[in-house]
Design goal:
By secondary structure, the protein is an alpha/beta fold. Helices cover 31% and strands 25% of the residues. The protein folds into 3 domains: 154 residues, ANL, N-terminal domain (Rossmann fold, 3-Layer(aba) Sandwich); 234 residues, Rossmann fold (3-Layer(aba) Sandwich); 103 residues, ANL, C-terminal domain (GMP Synthetase, Chain A, domain 3), CATH 3.30.300. It is globular and about 65 Å long. Bound molecules: malonyl-coenzyme A and adenosine monophosphate.
Length: 546
């Protein structure tokens, strides 16, 4: 079967409507498609020129991973689509990553070519190391490349590689196929009522599912306009919303928190009217605190539409478009095509079939999806998901892919509860080592592994402490090598870690302790540490002391 994504892009390709608006101006679907086809042509021609690496098939990159370091905007989208249309796999990364982390990712993904925007040439330079660095501006001026071969791209060909942290030390590259992207975008278009009348305000990072797929692909494939900002900046976002030129906004809870701080500073004139006029405001990637949801409702008349997603499965559960059907603190119902299962501690499973697609027509709240025989009225346990939006596997990690699935179900590692009226809510994670800070998923083990390279650290435990602004705050609890306590204090440790880890993985605090609490097996009892450190914060002590 041919790629449904390519087919949809072809339908949009002649439209004179605005596809992307960035700080350089507006780009129509027709112009964007033309630019993407030129990128495709240049990638194929460049690939074909490289002696030993010559393409076996001159009209397909056949799954070559191409790293993108391009600022958000039309050029990012044309580079991304160009890679996909050439049969390649896009690996979009953040320019905020330090060179060491970018180099590791490029090498894990087997990257031979990078596409960079001029502004980010300096970021790309240290990781070039024998790889070719292509300027997006040059690619967009090339000839469009061989015609007709676009239909050779199959639905199950991988299109996107997103690195996600897990319970192993290093992140794993999740491969999402053309079908995954098309299904996810279509599910959300239908459930959230996107159309060519929409303009989405986009300020999410473009190296994770939320920004690339949930926001950008949904808007783009629905034929909506996407207003792309260079980065999230509360003042800028508040001004755009106040201007009333967008209809939809998607964000992580920390962004809502930042917007309220902006309002409280008196720095968001006209915001309430603009926000109230939005057709849709969604929240995801982390739990939206009920207080924030209610504050948004007081301002706009409706709580944000909260939904649950994950890199490997896309959005699985969503509150309905109809504000009356939403419930604060809950993430809603399985989307059509999504099968959900809850397995309790005793191994008892309840399963729910995909919701009735007609129940997801815009404006309607879905009805009760019947539990299969044996299904409990109220179920609580690990959430498993199955369906066509679930990813293909981790790049080069058959072991990890096999471990992530059981009987064809993807095990999310999230603990969920399903109420008797069919709604789901999340209760936490099965692993204490998976953290969420500002919507970014972090592996405590990955951060510990990096910190252990520091000569002054004898032992370390990384934990997530509940935090109003970030959801969880990353804290390193450290036993220092004798006489080297000063090097383990927050300031010096953060400076050291910033050279090695993406900024949001760097612990916000380091707490030096004489020893770590361990159980009889010698394992650090992290829940105990979290409680102790959260209590210190609550008592108003300086958590940096010690
Ligand atoms: C930035 N910093 C963070 C951080 N983001 N620290 C911890 N956690 C984070 N999430 C650091 C900065 O590096 C900086 O460090 C300091 O905090 C202050 O930075 P800032 O400029 O105030 O922050 P900002 O750059 O504005 O970032 C905040 C944010 C960002 C909320 C805009 O975190 C963000 O874009 N989050 C979205 C993450 C996301 O898209 N997740 C989706 C995953 S997919 P210093 O040292 O300089 O002070 C997924 C599936 C699904 O989860 O369901 O959606
Ligand atoms: P990621 O691996 O970065 O895609 O993050 C996916 C994880 O984010 C999920 O497994 C959940 O733990 C969390 N998540 C996403 N949406 C929500 C939500 N609405 N509420 C709580 N947690 C969420």
């Amino acid at each position: 079967m041919a790629s449904p994504l390519v087919e949809r892009l072809a339908q949009l390709g002649s439209s004179a409507r605005t596809a992307v608006e960035d700080d350089r101006g507006q780009t129509t679907f027709a112009a964007l498609t033309e630019r993407a086809l030129r990128v495709r042509g240049a990638l194929l021609a460049d690939g074909g020129r490289r002696g030993a690496d010559a393409l076996a098939n001159p009209s397909s990159l056949e799954g070559e991973r191409i790293l993108l370091l391009v600022p958000p905007g039309a050029a990012w989208v044309s580079a991304f689509l160009g890679v996909l249309l050439a049969g390649g796999i896009a690996l979009p990364l953040s320019a905020l990553y330090p060179p060491a982390e970018l180099a590791w990712l490029a090498s894990d993904a087997g990257v031979r070519r990078l596409i960079v925007g001029d502004e980010l040439a300096g970021v790309a330079a240290p990781i070039a190391q024998g790889r070719s660095v292509l300027r997006v501006e040059d690619l967009e001026r090339a000839a469009p490349g061989p015609e007709g071969a676009l239909s050779d791209i199959a639905a199950d060909d991988p299109a996107l590689l997103l690195y996600t942290s897990g319970t192993t030390g290093k992140p794993k590259g999740a491969l999402l196929t053309h079908r995954n992207l098309a299904v996810q975008a279509e599910l959300l278009r239908a459930a959230w009522g996107f159309s060519e009348h929409d303009a989405l305000l986009h300020a999410l990072p473009l190296h994770h599912l939320h920004g690339v797929v949930i926001a950008l692909m949904t808007s783009l494939l629905a034929g909506s306009a996407t207003r792309m900002l260079p980065r999230f900046d509360a003042q800028r976002v508040a001004a755009e919303i106040a201007r009333g030129s967008v209809t939809a906004f998607m964000a992580v809870p920390t962004m809502y928190q930042r917007l309220f701080e902006q309002i409280d500073r008196g720095g968001a004139p006209g915001f309430a009217a603009g926000a109230g006029a939005l057709r849709l405001a969604t929240s995801g990637s982390a739990a939206l605190p009920v207080t924030l949801a209610e504050r948004w409702r007081d301002l706009t008349g409706a709580i944000p539409l909260e939904r649950f997603g994950m890199t490997e499965i896309g959005v699985g559960l969503s509150n309905p478009l109809d504000p009356g059907g939403r419930r604060a603190g809950w993430v809603g119902f399985p989307l059509p095509t999504v099968e959900a299962r809850i397995t309790d501690d005793a191994g008892n499973a309840s399963e729910w079939a995909p919701g009735d697609a007609s129940a997801w027509a815009p404006g309607d709240a879905p009805g009760e999806a019947p539990a299969r025989p044996g299904g409990a009225a109220v179920a609580r346990g690990e959430l498993w998901i199955r369906g066509p939006s679930v990813f293909k596997g981790y790049l080069g990690r058959e072991d990890a892919t096999a471990a992530a699935f059981q009987d064809g179900w993807f095990r999310t590692g999230d603990v969920a509860e399903r109420s008797s009226d069919g709604r789901f809510r999340l209760l936490g994670r099965t692993s204490v080592d998976i953290l969420k800070s500002g919507g970014y998923k972090l592996s405590a083990l990955e951060i510990e592994e990096a910190l252990r390279e520091h000569g002054a650290i004898a032992e370390v435990a990384v934990i997530g402490v509940p935090d109003e602004a970030w959801g969880e705050r990353v804290v390193a609890v450290v036993v220092a090598a004798p006489g080297r306590e000063a090097e383990c204090a927050t300031g010096p440790l953060r400076a050291w870690a910033k050279e090695r880890l993406a900024p949001y993985k760097v612990p916000r605090e380091s707490i030096v302790v004489p020893s770590l609490p361990r159980n009889a097996m010698g394992k650090v009892v992290k829940p105990e540490l979290v409680k102790a450190i959260a209590a210190r914060g609550a008592e108003g002590e300086d958590p940096r002391a010690g």
